[in-house]
Design brief:
Elements lengths: L12 E2 L5 E2 L1 H7 L19 H22 L4 H17 L1 H4 L3 H20 L15
Antiparallel strand pairs: 1-2
Helix pairs in contact: 2-3
Length: about 130
């Protein structure tokens, strides 16, 4: 069978109404209805086990980086680790955006970090500004 959206071979996902699609096409559709019959459908939060494993690894690495930042004594080293952490989060922002609570924390924390850098008369990292609209 071919996916009725992209016309490629669709073997990824069958909806509740028994229509066959590529999971990528359904995600791009961004609606909770079948593109053919408009019946309500539910998509899995992760398309497959590999994506779930990757997301877990990304969250684990971010937690390790965050712990390293919290334990830093030197301001210069702390600044370097903060930049590394922010760059990592920005690079994997698609995964992190699925967690709205995390997004709110990052927005709040980035503004606090900016204020801390200004208070210490250090130039805030440029990447901090990207997180205001994360």
């Amino acid at each position: 069978m071919k996916c009725p959206i992209c016309f490629k071979r669709a073997t990824n996902y069958t909806t509740e109404c028994k229509h066959l699609f590529c999971i990528g096409c359904l995600r791009k559709w961004k609606k909770t209805t079948c593109p053919i019959c408009r019946q309500a459908i539910t998509l899995p939060s992760y398309p497959n086990t590999r994506s779930r494993i990757i997301a877990h690894q990304v969250y684990s690495q971010a937690k390790r980086l965050l712990d390293a930042v919290e334990n830093m004594k030197s301001l210069i080293n702390k600044r370097k680790h903060i930049i590394t952490l922010l760059q990592y989060i920005w690079y994997h922002r698609i995964i992190f955006r699925q967690d709205l609570a995390f997004v709110r924390i990052i927005r709040r924390r980035s503004k606090v970090l900016h204020a801390e850098f200004v208070k210490l008369k250090m130039n805030p990292p440029k990447i901090l500004k990207q997180f205001y609209t994360f």
